[in-house]
Write a structure and sequence with these properties.
Helix content is 35%, strand content 19%. By secondary structure, it is an alpha/beta fold. The protein has a single domain, classed as P-loop containing nucleotide triphosphate hydrolases (Rossmann fold, 3-Layer(aba) Sandwich). Strand 2 and strand 3 form a beta hairpin. The N and C termini lie far apart (47 Å). The structure holds adenosine-5'-diphosphate and guanosine-5'-monophosphate. The site of adenosine-5'-diphosphate has 16 residues, from helix 1 and helix 5.
């Protein structure tokens, strides 16, 4: 007796599954890597959240981006950023090495494309901590990325965090706060928002982990194309 069709049938290549109507599905158990764009105004806690995510054993890759900004005390070239001169940054641009680039708070920043492509090809999740302009470019140039916005509960809380961090001059802080309002207006274009409430860092990390978990459980997950 012929076996009854239980729903999804394996295709000839065995690398894909077809639903009864012929749509391609991810085989149960197969893992599609995520491309996560993580944005939010300066000082909201993006670095703190992602550092903690890694410390808790997240197996994904956080891309080290390039910048013309001067290193802050304690920042290491190749670890926190690839610190580059204006000329070196321009060379990277001319050689087509950057997936996107933008001027943020008076300095240039850009995402090296090669590590993003390599990690995704290996099946590793990739997270880009970039500003909202960069997010727009990634949205236009890639497919299948997930956009997560980290928001403060109020702009007052943001000022407080920038002051406590103490890494920026008063002029830089003013510029970052001016840009924060513009960045907050971009929130509507993101898939998820996490409010990083004062002294509730654990909640933010739990929410980010929940988002990553839910995205990995999608039935028809789309492999990001970069
Ligand atoms: P970003 O990377 O978004 O610019 P940081 O991660 O450098 O921001 O965080 C800015 C400051 O805010 C740091 O001093 C950090 O310790 C602090 N911070 C981050 N999250 C919280 C939170 N939930 N409550 C209180 N302080 C926080
Ligand atoms: P900071 O100078 O505080 O480290 O970063 C300033 C802003 O630049 C942050 O919003 C950060 O996410 C963003 N940023 C860091 N790297 C990149 C990048 O490669 N591209 C873009 N567009 N923004 C970036």
């Amino acid at each position: 007796m012929a076996e009854r069709d239980s729903g999804a049938a394996r295709s000839a290549s065995a690398s894909q599954w077809l639903s009864p109507d012929g749509a391609v599905m991810t085989p149960p158990g197969a893992r599609t890597p995520l491309l996560v764009v993580f944005s939010g105004p300066s000082g909201v806690g993006k670095t703190t959240v992602t550092n903690e995510l890694v410390r808790q054993g997240w197996s994904g890759h956080i891309v080290v981006t390039a910048t013309t900004r001067r290193p802050r005390p304690g920042e290491v070239d190749g670890v926190h950023y690839h610190f580059r001169t204006q000329h070196e940054f321009q060379q990277m641009l001319e050689h087509g090495e950057l997936l996107e680039h933008a001027e943020v708070h008076g300095n240039w920043y850009g995402v090296p494309a090669t590590p993003v492509r390599e990690k995704l090809a290996q099946g590793t999740d990739v997270l880009l901590t970039i500003d909202t302009q960069g997010a727009r470019t990634v949205r236009a140039r890639t497919q299948g990325a997930i956009f997560v916005f980290l928001a403060p509960r109020s702009l007052d809380e943001l000022v407080e965090r920038l002051n406590i961090r103490g890494t920026d001059t008063p002029e830089q802080r003013t510029l970052r706060m001016l840009n924060a309002e513009r960045e907050m207006a971009e929130l509507q274009h993101y898939d998820y928002v996490i409010v990083n409430q004062q002294d509730r860092l654990t909640d933010s990390i739990e929410q980010l982990r929940a988002i990553l978990c839910a995205e990995h459980c999608r039935v028809n997950s789309q492999r990001p194309t970069v």
